[in-house]
Each structure stands twice: as structure tokens, then as C-alpha cells.
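Figure 2 data, in text form.
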Amino acid sequence: MKTILFIISFSIIASCNYYSQADTNQLPPEKSSIKVIKLVDSLGSITFSIPSRYDTTFIWTHYSDCGKPCDEIKYRLQPKSLKIFQESGFYWRGEPKDSVERFTIVHSGYFPFYNNTDSNSIFQQHFAKKQNTISDPDTYKIKSDTVEKIGDRYFSIIVIDLYDTLKNQYSKKLLASTTIKGNIVDFKYELLTKRNDSLNKNFITNSKYYLRTIRISNGM
């Protein structure tokens, strides 16, 4: 049985485009600033670089109809020129139809703390994330995926790059996940636009840079 589990784990790792350590020596691709987000319930703090135009930050609980185990805490940064949108399971109005540029950190509103913080579990999580992404009508096609070591932990990374010919609209997402004290934390860089400008063309590359600046310090 142990041999079978080892083979399964190895197969998952081998199926990823795995990079042992990200290169963080690159200069910022645009005017940027350093932010620190303190997560709730002593889950720790996240330090990262973000475009300076992301000058609006808000935090809320995305409540779910299935109760507290399904609730999510969300931390979002975006330009103040764009409309603020806060998802809620009670008053769900669907996603914005256009003009989205944002960075969101997401974790469960109900989580245990584990003594074992081995981030290698993200290899198993990566496979499940891919399946969930493909089954979502908003992210039905994956452009690329990998598992990469950033700082002191592994991140599952999925890239979405879609174009809707009927709406003349681009949808780009960099979806990343890691673990903190055994709990999954998601990082989402999202762009929805009709403009085929430099922001659109460089969004994924720039988002990868910002993702690689993330550093996590554990709390209590």
C-alpha cells in the first residue's frame, strides 16, 4: 500500500512543471509599493509587492448558504477608479461584466491549526485545483500550470488566458495557492477588459513577478 501511495505522489509531482526556486532578483515591471496584510485569527502576515495604482484595500467575509465551514475571508486590493465588488453567497449577483483589475487573498473562515506545516502537500492540492478550474465555466481552459517554490514554501500556480469573441473581451487570471499551518490560502490576480493594451499584454508576466515577492510570516 505504501508503495502505491508513493507512486501516486510521485506521478502528481512529475506531471507538474516544477521549479525549485523562483528568481526574485528581477526589477519591478512598473511603479510598485510594498504592502503587508495581517490575516485574521493569528494565521500570520503576508508581505508582497503590488502596483502602486492598487490604492484601495478592503476585507470582508464571503458568507455561504452552507454555514461557517464554507465561509471565506477575502482581502482585496484594486485601483480606486474601479467599482468595488464584494462577493456574497446571500446576495449573489454574479461576477462583474467588465473592467476588473484586482488582487485577492482568500482563506477559509473556519480552519484548524496544524503542527505539521509541510508545504509539500501543495503537490496533491495542485491536481485538485486543476480539476476545479477546468470545471468552472469562467476558467474552463488552462494555459499553463506549475508548482514553484517561492520563499520558504511551494505554490500551486495556474494561468488562465481567455478571449471571448462575442463580447470582444479578455479574461486573464493567475491563480496561486499555498498552505499556512496546514490551511489552504489562495492568491488571485485577475483582469477583465476589452482593451488590447500593454496592461492586458503584460498582465500575466507582471502578476508572476508580484506573486514571487510574496513572503509569509506565521502568527501564533
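Caption note: The helical segments are 2-15, 122-135, 198-211.
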